[in-house]
Amino acid sequence: MVDEPTLGEVVRRFEDRFADVREDIQQLGHRMDEKVDQRIYDLRHEALSARVGTLETLREKESEKLVATRRWLIGAVVVPLIGVLLPVILLLTRGAGS
Fold first, then answer.
1. In whole angstroms, what is the distance from residue 60 CA to residue 94 CA?
2. Residue 77, class by beta-carbon neighbours within 10 Å (0-12 exposed, 13-18 middle, 19+ buried)?
3. What's the rounded Cα separation, in Å, for the pair 77 and 69?
4. Cα–Cα dist 67/60, whole Å
5. Membrane-spanning regions, if any (predicted)?
């Protein structure tokens, strides 16, 4: 009989558990208030997908510009430079050999 709690002790324990349950329910209520509605989530996801698609298109255009710039550089600068320097180098090497 010594191990059995008194009625007042049982009531206190019950009130403590009840307060814990009440706090848990309040926390769940706060979490539910913070939850994003599915429609809003879908709209945000669609907007993000559209933005990513736009960025990918821009990246592809930039890479095409880079390739075009490299081709222009090779065609307008490197090829004429080789065309001018190669005969000079050949003349110098043949002139030195004769």
1. 48
2. exposed
3. 11
4. 11
5. 72-92
Alpha helix positions (H), 35-78: 38-73
The residue count of the chain comes to 98
What are the pLDDT digits (tens) for 59-72? 999 999 999 999 99
Q: State which amino acid sits at residue 69.
A: T
State both tokens at 69: 């710039």
Q: Output the pLDDT for position 35.
A: 78
Query: What integer pLDDT is reported at residue 1 of this predicted model?
Result: 58
**What is the rounded radius of gyration, in angstroms, for the C-alpha atoms of the chain?**
40
Q: Give yes or no for a contact between 53 and 60, defined as CB atoms under 8 angstroms apart.
A: no
Distance, CA of 62 to CA of 78 (rounded, Å): 23
69 three-class SS: helix
Q: Is the pLDDT of residue 75 over 60?
A: yes
Would you give the DSSP letter of residue 1?
-
